[in-house]
């Protein structure tokens, strides 16, 4: 039985992690009955070490005492690093050995419960007896064959074991690296992934000892008296969150569904103390007794001129802009980029559109408060510096928005009237314009107005005749219907229908925009009166191919195919502007803007996935299908090598499609080498702990990479839906920062204090 009771606060203040020493009481013992998998893993590792490096396991002397048949911690880590490519760091190797230590198949000679990469002695369970047999030649051969699968298994569960090892330490023993690992692990938990990286401020009245639990491992039933089990919560879910906000009695009981459940616990008393610390470092600027700007005060490490730094938490658009201008550094070239200013310029469309921002910029440039003291020259310098700051901001604004500024009359007029236009044109010229590709059934056209690209698209009638219309990429459904009505000369009230190859019909809303770029694979647009909707049928061309392309496909090099796919994917990805992600997440109908490039990149993922399924299912012979599976696995491996994660995941998900998975005879004939590769690739798609396996892999890659876009969209959606855009009529600027930095958290903007307790429960017992 394991019972681990901890109190450990994590303070992340700017880029520094501080730990608070609290009294810790903990009890932990290794598992008395190791699982069969880990027992076998231990045997495989021991046999392989005795076969390849027998000097690692030997009698050792230390302080006049002999320790028989021991291994040294550093040598075990070195050995792992040399024998597998799935181990990227010594920290990861430590976690893998910690798995064996927790299960009791590897033991420290003094019974310590944590594995360390040091001159410490460890002994395999089999070597505890004096007459431990050496492996036979047959056992050595079997262990060699199983080694890579064993190392892959340990690499998957090692991070959890390493985290538990860190949590079992007393707070004073945890290093900065330990606390960084804890923080990163917390960000991978589903219950925390959508939250802002700062703690919300509220003032609970009661001091009752209630708690919030987050499930790390296992599952629980939620039971309500008189109703029984109402739902089941799994890994990453949480319960008891409202206990941190109010003192209402619990409406349900939580009962474990299985043994060995792990939880993180936040106690209200500790959390309240954290809130007081956060409030003490919050600065509020008021006007007419109301907050207009809320700043976070942090230590500005590394700066001798200003020891404190003030980061925007929330405020009115005017005050946020004013603060960012005041804090802009005036070096000769403006070489230092301010992340907060970049975030403001990218996200301002959410809370202050160009039509409102332009007057604010003009006012900041023209009118500003004059200093009451100083010489005339000093006051002139002050005025000049203010203008320089505004010019710097406008240049960045133009560079980030490129042709978006010239699509709107208000911003275009502002650049001309304010005489910023020549400067901004120079800035914009340095950045390539996004190009809009056309989906199936559409053809891109040039336009006299280069900032409003057009497409020529077919819209079908119920009798499968069609009309070709010419509309902007961002055209709404209402505009498309008007163009078709004008072309047909029809006076009927027409509706626009999206019809896919299966015959499913979707009635499009009049306000929907960018409809041509968001069509599904083999989807087509139909226009008809309401009474003809039921009679619509797919076009023959929507049924797809009837034969595969294996005959030509197998002649192509897998690496060349992956390379060409990567070049094409990169061209699509490079055209996606950050604003398209914002429009897609917040709702493009609110902005009346196109997300054509993003839509086509997302569509590309579906195309590759369905291409894999189609080719495999249309392959008529068993031997050819086996060759095709091998081909796709090799292409996926090369896509991963080229850091094209979007196509990599599309191929693997295609192979995991039920239509392909059910081909049991084909998979049985696949060589074990390719089965192992496919197994490794599948593990990267493991959704547990908020897709931690994928996130850890991406964190180790050097840019440029082509990311798995559906997961990025999911992250942004969680950030948007889990955080209000406005709080008390102020812009929640922390949400804007969190939204943009979801993939790589900007810790200079963070002050997070979370007190967690880890509980590992056995037996079916009631928690609350």
UniProtKB/TrEMBL annotation:
The Cyclic nucleotide-binding domain, residue ranges: 209-275
Domain of life, per lineage: Eukaryota
Domain DEP as annotated: residue spans: 51-126
Signal sequence residues: 1-19
Alphabetical list of InterPro entries matching this protein: cNMP-bd_dom, cNMP-bd_dom_sf, DEP_dom, Ras-like_GEF, Ras-like_Gua-exchang_fac_N, Ras_G-nucl-exch_fac_CS, Ras_GEF_dom_sf, RASGEF_cat_dom
GO molecular function: guanyl-nucleotide exchange factor activity
One Gene Ontology biological process: Ras protein signal transduction
N-terminal Ras-GEF domain location: 308-446
UniProt-listed Pfam families: cNMP_binding, DEP, RasGEF, RasGEF_N
Location of the Ras-GEF domain: 557-768
Any single GO CC term annotated in Swiss-Prot or TrEMBL for this entry: plasma membrane
Keywords: Guanine-nucleotide releasing factor, Signal
PANTHER family xref list: GUANINE NUCLEOTIDE EXCHANGE FACTOR, RAP GUANINE NUCLEOTIDE EXCHANGE FACTOR 4
The protein's name: Rap guanine nucleotide exchange factor (GEF) 4
